[in-house]
Design a protein that fits this description.
Blueprint lengths: L17 H5 L34 H4 L7 H6 L12 H14 L6 H15 L6 H13 L14 E4 L6 H16 L7 E4 L11 E2 L9 E4 L3 E4 L4 H9 L14 E4 L5 E4 L8 E3 L14 E3 L3 E2 L2 E5 L2 E3 L4 E2 L4 H10 L8 H8 L10 H19 L7 H18 L7 H4 L23 E4 L1 H6 L16
Parallel strand pairs: 1-2
Antiparallel strand pairs: 3-6, 4-5, 6-7, 8-9, 10-13, 11-12, 11-14
Helix pairs in contact: 4-5, 9-11, 10-11
Bound molecules: arginine (ARG).
Length: about 450
């Protein structure tokens, strides 16, 4: 594979020759058979599957019981997009100018926005407005404990891109750029917005990298149970995984006409960490691994009345808690606590021996150690909680509206040993913000009607 690096927009949003640069790195579109040829320079457009319209129809046949809420949310395949709410647009512009006094003439900009909305039902954010919107959406993410870094978010401005193959290529380029060999940087790629004329693209996967989950009637589940529905959807579109516990799922992009397109994520775009323990030699034999960078792909950015339905963004992991305790430890995820406890030789005759607690801590230790040893940037729940408290104090002192969700800010282990536990927060919804698409929520619902809050994946 040629190592052509796609450079994203710089801080001013310039990144000339969008489509031209991409041709080197277009990912292979997976048709009925999956074969990744790297890199595909030309390709035939293939639309999958031919079931007459809505992208979910084929997958849903006979699975109505599996995903009822998902089905409900997909009743209209291509909803019409209403005109921008001019009051929201105005409030956004005013707040942008209030926080950015050097931004220019407020009244002039307001007049422009009003004129554009009454003419076309929408308006275009300037690059500084867009950048501010993405950063403030992060600042407003009530469940995110890493928000002290909100000003460092960098924008890849791809608002002209809605072709599914380019969306996939840009998302993979984002993943590579953000990974940066382990020196992770926070980026957001913003694709075409919804407008009254045209819907923007969508990515169905919750993240750019997700491991498949296979339901095996005989011996339970292999892989990540969270992604069973997505895996079945990919399979119904012609994907075939290797059947291991850590198969990277293909990206499924929904085009503006609501048709699905599926793309393999190249192996060399996915940095992974093998998990070992600093003291327990046997730990590596569990064969655990995790990917380095969480790039969230199923949330939309809403700012000033405009919705960007596809705006992948990433930070870096709070490895101990997110990967160790939750992804690998949760009973309905990789469920590794019993194996770890057994390896440690703990008395598992009763939960009152606290074997789950002790195993969870060692799983956290192992994951944190492994990310560090692999030189992959990551933080941990103890460090991050302290940074979060500083962020909370800064926001409170700033006079800006802010919010936090106590139950998500606190880590899943040892919460009371961190300062985040010992106080309360204003929990409310603020815009600009990131919000999860309704049908994505249903996709992660793991067979129950409503699933866990927010599908078990934090932002
Ligand atoms: N909790 C999610 C996961 O384990 C990732 C959410 C984003 N996390 C982050 N540190 N930026 O994959």
């Amino acid at each position: 594979m040629r190592e052509t690096i796609l450079h994203g927009g710089d801080m001013n949003g310039h990144h000339g020759g969008r489509a031209g640069q991409l041709n080197d790195r277009l990912p292979t579109l997976i048709a009925q058979t999956i074969e990744y040829e790297a890199p595909a320079v030309s390709y035939d457009e293939v639309t999958l599957p031919k079931t007459g319209g809505s992208w979910g129809a084929k997958f849903l046949q006979g699975r109505e019981r599996l995903l009822p809420s998902w089905r409900r949310s997909r009743t209209a395949a291509v909803p019409s997009i209403p005109a921008v709410d001019v009051a929201e647009a105005e409030e956004f512009i005013r707040r942008f100018h209030a926080e950015n006094p050097a931004a220019g003439d407020l009244e002039e900009r307001l007049a422009q926005v009003h004129a554009s909305v009454s003419r076309m039902g929408t308006y275009e954010h300037t690059f500084p407005e867009l950048q501010w919107a993405t950063r403030v959406a992060w600042r407003h993410a009530a469940r995110c404990s890493g928000r002290d870094k909100w000003r460092t978010l960098r924008v890849r401005d791809r608002r002209t891109v809605s072709d599914p193959q380019e969306v996939a290529a840009e998302t993979i380029a984002h993943l590579r750029e953000a990974t940066s060999g382990g020196r992770i940087r926070s980026w957001i790629t913003v694709f075409a917005p919804d407008t009254p004329e045209r819907q923007g693209p969508r990515i169905l996967n919750p993240q750019a990298v997700r491991y498949a989950g296979y339901r095996k009637p005989a011996d339970g589940i292999t892989g990540d149970p969270l992604n069973i529905a997505l895996t079945e959807l990919a399979t119904s579109l012609g994907w075939e995984g290797d059947g291991t516990a850590f198969d990277v799922l293909p990206l499924i992009v929904i085009d503006p006409q609501a048709r699905p397109h599926m793309f393999q994520v190249p192996r060399d775009a996915v940095l992974e960490v093998s998990i070992s323990h600093p003291e327990f030699g046997w730990f590596a034999e569990l064969g655990l691994r995790w990917y380095a960078v969480p790039v969230i792909t199923d949330m939309y950015l809403e700012a000033g009345g405009i919705r960007y339905p596809c705006a992948p963004f990433n930070g870096w992991y709070q490895a101990s808690s997110e990967v160790g305790v939750r992804n690998l430890g949760d009973p309905d995820r990789y469920n590794m606590l019993p194996a770890v406890a057994a390896g440690m030789g703990l008395d598992m005759s009763s939960v009152a021996t606290f074997w789950p607690d002790r195993a969870a801590v060692e799983l956290a230790v192992a994951v944190q150690h492994s990310f560090r040893a692999a030189n992959v940037m990551a933080t941990d729940h103890q460090t991050e909680a302290r940074r979060f408290i500083q962020f909370a104090e800064t926001e409170e002192a700033s006079g800006r509206p802010w919010c936090a969700d106590w139950s998500w800010i606190n880590p899943p282990i040892s919460a009371s040993t961190t300062p985040a536990f010992h106080r309360t927060y204003p929990d409310r919804l603020l815009k600009p913000g990131f919000f999860r698409h309704e049908d994505s929520r249903a996709l992660m619902a793991r067979g129950s009607d409503d699933g866990p809050p927010c599908g078990g994946s934090v932002i």
